[in-house]
Amino acid sequence: MLGKDALNLVFIFALHMHYDQYEITPGDTAMVYEFVSQGPKGDVKKTVIYSQTGITNLFNLGFGDQNENTGEMDDCVVTNNGDSIKVLATVASTVYLFTNLFPNALIGAAGSTPARTRLYRIMISNNLETIRRDFEVYGFLDGDWQTFSVDTNYSAFLLSRKSKS
Predict the structure, then answer these.
(1) CA angle 37, 41, 42 (to 5 degrees)
(2) For the segment 1-48, what is each residue's pLDDT rounded down to a tens digit?
(3) Separation of alpha carbons 142 and 107, rounded Å
């Protein structure tokens, strides 16, 4: 169960990013978070899943719509609910929740399409100063991780929570 401190971090993150966000419901484990997108297409359940990889402390961040029939997360569907910034701000706030519980975690993410990866890069670029207060940010380019730089077309991203001192 998420403690009060973790939920306060979500509020702080949303405040710093200056974006509205949806209320997050923790899943059955600390690896899953859920929220509901609201817009012209109605209420759409979204799921954020942190999956362990074969590398110690490296987790993949995946998110998408929850399939009503299977309950599985679909990261390829296009919702077009008119709230993409609010959705991405909500997903980003789960990184604070997750790394509050797992401070040594490395969070990797990439879009399911080049257009989505570009959208993530734009959101990171537009909020880089705020993100860098708490995280080291890297981009994957030409087979190597490098410190994130605005306007560079990366194929994936990596976040590492800075140590609290």
Answers:
(1) 60
(2) 344 444 444 444 444 456 789 999 998 888 999 999 999 999 999 999
(3) 19
Pairing of strands 106-109, 58-66: parallel
d(CA 100, CA 104): 9
Look up residue 40 and give its amino acid: P
Contact 72, 119 (CB under 8 A): no
Q: Is 102 helix (H, G, I), strand (E, B) or coil?
A: coil
- pLDDT tens for 86-130 read 998 899 889 989 999 999 999 999 988 999 899 889 989 988 998
Output the CA angle 152-17-122, nearest 5 degrees. Answer: 20
pLDDT value for 7: 43
137/160 Cα distance (integer angstroms): 7
Bridge partners of 45? 36
Integer Cα distance of 21 and 87 in angstroms? 7
DSSP, res 155 = S
Tokens 């998420």 belong to residue: 2
